[in-house]
Amino acid sequence: MTDTLASHADQGLHRGEPLIEMDSVGKSYGAIRALRDINLRVNAGEVTCVLGDNGAGKSTLIKIMSGLHPHNEGTLRVDGKPVTFSSPRESLAHGIATVYQDLAVVGLMEVWRNFFLGSELTAGKFPLAGLKVKQMREIADTELRKMGIVVKDINQPIGTLSGGQRQCVAIARAVYFGARVLILDEPTAALGVKQSGVVLKYVAAARSAGLGVVFITHNPHHAYMVGDHFVILKLGETTLDKTRKEVSLDELTTQMAGGDELAELSHELGRK
Amino acid sequence: MTSTVEAPAPAAGRVKLGLSNRLLARPEIGALVAAVIIFIFFLSLAPSFRSAESFFTVLYQSSVIGIVACGVGLLMIGGEFDLSAGVIVYTAGLFNSMFCWYFGVNLWVGAFLSLAFCLLIGFLNGYLVMRTGIPSFLITLGTFFVLQGANLGVTKLVTKTVSSLDVSNIDGYDSLGKVFSSSFKVGSVTIWTSVIWWILFVALATWVLQRTRAGNWIFAVGGNPDSARAVGVPVLRTKIGLFMTVSFLGWFVGMHQLYRFNTLQAGGGVGNEFLYIIAAVVGGTLLTGGYGNSIGVAIGAFIFGMTSLGIIYAGWDPNWFKAFLGVMLLLAVLVNLYVKRMSTMRKVG
Fold first, then answer.
1. Binary contact (A92, B226; C-beta < 8 A)
2. A25 DSSP assignment
3. Taking the domains of chain A in order of start, what are their residue ranges?
4. CB contact, 8 Å: A138 with chain B?
5. CB contact under 8 A, A160 and B231
6. Cβ separation of B228 and A205 shorter than 8 Å?
7. Concatenated DSSP letters for B259-291?
8. Is B227 near chain A, with CB under 8 Å?
9. Rounded mean pLDDT of A33-42?
10. CB–CB of B227 and A103 under 8 A?
């Protein structure tokens, strides 16, 4: 498993080397400041977990990294060079792949078509060049199999797979096409316990292969199982930034749940 | 790490779907069954339906609708509508004929200018839909009314009547006629070239949809545009291209009408946009996009041709035709719903 993931992962990745660095990055939408003064490092071979409540700025953070919205404060560096992404294509070209929770795949299309969507193999450059259908089916089938995803029929619409399997296919696709940084937007939010497990194993495998993983979630238990580094956002600002050694699951859970505010709330409600 | 992920399944775990399941998963199967039933129905009821001549008349009737429906089908698979597809046929023909009549230039010049104009309308439809995010139903409803009004208004200004003038004496009429509306005889059967063009367009569209990168993108932008964009599919370009394909095919049929009939009624084409949509839906195209194929749409157009002529051959009141189309549409939607459920919820193994 690790070997097959690793065989597709960029061989130039060195564990611990910074892939994405953010220096006091901020983003305003008109008068609304969605994100301010964010310092974040995504290292190769590490899982960086970004936690936060709804409206904390998690999605804005992803959008900056995946090229949907450019940042307007601070600097974003990829491989040490400052960049500002203006489209998802640019960010993909830097090896940054984002897997969104509900829009990872096109449900009515076959598994193999989804696997190669946007990176199809064709017999030539001209517009009506035929797709190498047989080859794509075989590659998709063997790659998914190697990566431990059991698809009964590679020609079935991907909508017939379970939510966890769909997420895994999307991740496998990103890795196969040479992603160096994997951004996972709440991959376990809509999944049951068992399916979340499948996805978490996959996150761990991607880390072992040397990829930098950004794992967005609001479940501290899931984060603590795979994370190396934890960042909690609140109202667009960082309220916690610690490595795995410096933080316990309890502290993470309390902080996530609101920490001091929660204590205050429980005092106010006054039930013993 | 290796131990945390389950071992790959053995290849023996593969499931081969039964023939019935694989057939049911095809979009055009419902339309095919309906076409066979309707064909047998008219064969047994209308004696004059049972000849090769009338079969090719049916094919001709189907091709005039089928060529544009082919483009509309692609567009609907791509998740959009085009309500201006009916009148653009007449806009194309009227533009060509009146421009050349008014300025006294060769009809070929007018034909190319008309093509450019139609492609521009298609581009504008697509661009407005994509840039504003307003549903294509509304944008093209607007284009539909603009074109319908302009067709009548401009024609009235130029000719003082509601039809275009005779262009058969202008240079280029004969050669254009050969390209767009000629026919040849095989025995006693007249075969219009538009039928051959129709088959070519359907074959091309089928190839594009199933076997090219563009086809993959069409399914993706119709099925889930956001996810398509996230993996790098150029959604804007794909959708605008689809709108332009529809207006190109509309232009093509417009040329056929002009060079077959010489003069055109300025109010023509209104209502045909629904025939295209019905052909596409009867052929198994999903109204919400992302599913369908061109052969299904062609069968849908063929059902249209059979019923519109079959009713006449059977000696019935042709006014019933629309009612029949409505019933077909409702049945098709129900069948599609059922088939989609079968193909996405079916048990695999």
1. no
2. E
3. 2-105+178-269
4. no
5. no
6. no
7. HHHSS-BTTTTTTHHHHHHHHHHHTT--TTSS-
8. yes
9. 86
10. yes
Helix (H, G, I), strand (E, B) or coil at A231: strand
Residues in B closer than 8 angstroms to A159, CB to CB, are 344
CA angle A160, A163, A166 (to 5 degrees): 75
Give residues with Cβ within 8 angstroms of A264, minimum separation 6: none
pTM, full prediction: 0.84
- What is the distance in angstroms between the Cα of B9 and the nearest Cα belonging to chain A? 6
Please state, in angstroms and rounded to a whole number, the distance separating the CA atoms of residues B270 and A173: 47
C-alpha distance from residue B339 to each of B17, B26, B80, B266, B333 (Å): 16, 8, 21, 41, 10
Cβ-contact B125, B140 below 8 angstroms: yes
- For chain B, say whether A62 makes contact (Cβ under 8 Å): no
Interchain CB contact of A63 with B (< 8 Å): no
Report the pLDDT value the prediction gives residue B345, as an integer from 0 to 100: 56
Q: Would you say residue B34 lies in a domain?
A: yes
Per-residue pLDDT of chain B (349 residues), as tens digits, is: 333 444 444 444 445 556 666 666 677 887 888 888 889 988 998 888 888 889 999 999 999 999 999 999 999 999 999 999 999 999 999 999 999 999 989 999 999 999 999 999 999 999 999 999 999 999 999 999 999 999 999 999 999 998 888 888 899 999 999 999 899 988 888 899 999 999 999 999 999 999 999 999 999 999 989 888 878 888 999 999 999 999 999 999 999 999 999 999 999 899 999 999 999 998 989 888 888 999 999 999 999 999 888 888 888 888 888 888 888 788 877 877 776 676 555 444 3
CB contact under 8 A, B219 and A98: no
Write phi, then psi, for B17 (nearest 5 degrees): -75, 145
Q: Do B17 and A129 touch (CB under 8 A)?
A: no
Interface probe for B, chosen from A86, A105, A108 (most Cβ of B below 10 Å), is: A108
CA distance A10 to A180: 6
Lowest mean pLDDT among A1-5, A121-125, B217-221: A1-5
In chain A, the percentage of residues whose pLDDT exceeds 70 is: 92
Question: The domain spanning residue B291 has which CATH number?
Answer: 1.10.3470
Mean pLDDT of the region A59-67: 86
CB spacing of A1 vs B290 below 8 angstroms: no
Test mutation, B5, B21, B77, B231, chain A, max A CBs within 10 A:
B231
**B76 in reach of chain A (CB within 8 A):** no
Residues of A in contact with B219 (CB under 8 A): 106, 108-109, 113
Count up the domains in chain B and report the number: 1
3-state secondary structure of A7: helix
- The average pLDDT across A112-129 equals 86
Backbone angles phi, psi at A37, to 5 degrees: 50, 55
In terms of residue numbers, what domain contains B159? 30-40+50-338
State which CATH number among 3.40.710.10, 1.10.10.10, 3.40.50.300, 3.30.160.20 fits the domain covering A2-105+178-269.
3.40.50.300
